Amino acid sequence: MGFIGADGPAGPTGPTGPAGADGATDSVTTLAGGATISDSDTHFVFYVNNSAAAPTIYLPHASSGAGKQIRIQATVPWNGKPLTIRTQGSDGIWDTQYGTPALTSDSHQGSVTYVSGGGTRWLVLWAN
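^ thats the sequence. predicted structure below, dont judge the formating
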């Protein structure tokens, strides 16, 4: 068996592939207290202005997509004006941290991330 020869020159560049689908937007402008997140909204992070009041935000329906994640972030964490998160219809919030398996509202100081069960449940994925 002989020696392996040197690599040859690189071939020409191939054609460009098709563009991929647009991804979900990672944030939106600040929501006002009392805002309802639409079922069709594809954003992940929602900033909520809690500098002057303790705002309430309404989640989309959990049936709007299994595995859908919603992160709600206070613009001024830990200032004594928490975010209150409410559900719509018969949806519930499941969070064993508070010893209650299903709630219709939830309050947090800084931020919280929910994930949809695809039916009537929002699960608390992460909170501070």
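The radius of gyration is 22 Å.
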